[in-house]
Amino acid sequence: MYVIKASGAKELFRGDKLAATLKRVGLAKAKIEEVVNKVKLSLSRKPTSHEVIERALNYLQKTDVAAAARYNLKRAIMQLGPTGFPFEQYIARLLTAYGYDVVTNVQANGFCVHHELDLVAKKDGRHIMIECKFHNSPGLRSDVKTALYTWARFLDIKKAWEQEHGHTKEFHEAWLVTNTKCTADAIQYARCVGLHILSWRHPEENSLEKLIDQKKLYPITVLLSGNQMLFSKLIRAGFVLVADLAKVNLNELSRRTGLGGKRLYGIHQEAQALIKDSSPST
Amino acid sequence: MYVIKASGAKELFRGDKLAATLKRVGLAKAKIEEVVNKVKLSLSRKPTSHEVIERALNYLQKTDVAAAARYNLKRAIMQLGPTGFPFEQYIARLLTAYGYDVVTNVQANGFCVHHELDLVAKKDGRHIMIECKFHNSPGLRSDVKTALYTWARFLDIKKAWEQEHGHTKEFHEAWLVTNTKCTADAIQYARCVGLHILSWRHPEENSLEKLIDQKKLYPITVLLSGNQMLFSKLIRAGFVLVADLAKVNLNELSRRTGLGGKRLYGIHQEAQALIKDSSPST
Fold this sequence. Notes:
homodimer, alpha/beta, DNA polymerase, domain 1, two-stranded antiparallel sheet, 12 helices, 15% strand
């Protein structure tokens, strides 16, 4: 059976690939084969890859809500874009949960020009300048050019504070944070110069999705009972993370958003189930 | 009278702005006011900026073919894109005319990663690595990030050859060449680190459009009697520059392109008139 990809190209449906993904998102071993078979049987005659994802999410949702959230996470971060919530603000929330002091939109003097830094984070006396790179398509990778300009920016700022007495504005590290993967060249360059990359599946043990998962810092866009309009309204009312949504009661949620009804109840229930049931996959 | 811009925004029609542009492209002083008035009178009730350009080109074409070519040059370079002719190949032709030895698509070792360089140029014993940045919209400027990554690439390559004995692969200069303007930050950064920028209207005395004009190296897309299909066919047959087109006779042109008729005659005539009449504006 062939699956039609977003690009229009055809690809054989591969149960082993879906099984590997389900394993990675932490679905219990005994359930993996069952879900793969159910997905396969439920597909239409000319399925799209979008349909495969929808079906898998559907079964995961009934089987393991935490695995469903992890399966949906990459897409969910991309869906933050259309709600108007900036990716760097989400990363700021994430780093704060890991004990960093984070400031957004910082002006910094370079030797040659002024720079606008997406984030500045501090922890244990170390100061970090962070460049955030958001892509709105899963196929786009951050390439070596992004790593090169982030590093050149760091060098320009470094040259400025090295000429100051006292070095009060020193940055000890430069990070590039992105919601998709990076090219092999970008990773190699970053490792070589000492730039830290935090991205999808990299670095293996502390990749973006693992940092999110370990603290259950899922964005609300991971919830299957929402849609873009609902997400936008919730985010405008201050609910960006599933945990924020789960910890208020339904009355307060209704009061703060001006919303009500079955839809709000559904997403609130789903948020609570996810925060309660999800067991960190570490 | 208002003019509707490509973005949909409205802007007052400004005769003084059009006059300044006509002066810059070298139209004789006595003619400027006449052309501005003719353009103004010929506009429809709800003119677009595209219409203003078309009308001005129309009158310029009858008044001063070289000024018309210069007026149309920025758009013509952008129109090379859809023909499939790469911008870096056009820049290679330009630099060759100025006595540089130019090689395209060069692999270079960096200290951290391999780099693919758009162009490498040599002249008077100096070796230059060149990054070409093509934009397909006049509103897009090359920003400081482009200057930063070009410079970081240069540093990485520099670090590699500094560790070699003999320094045989040394680059003495790094250039960024782009078909639109650069931001003020990009120019400031480049000046500070020693990166050479060649772009629209910068540097003032040797900007891209002046280098093109001084040697009459107009791309054929500057010719008003062509359209995209004709341009593509001519370029596939090896005619990229107006000068290439002007120096063959019509029979040979017809033989080499497999084209004929009024259209081919018209563009050939226009090419010859431009090469004959245009007086470098230096």
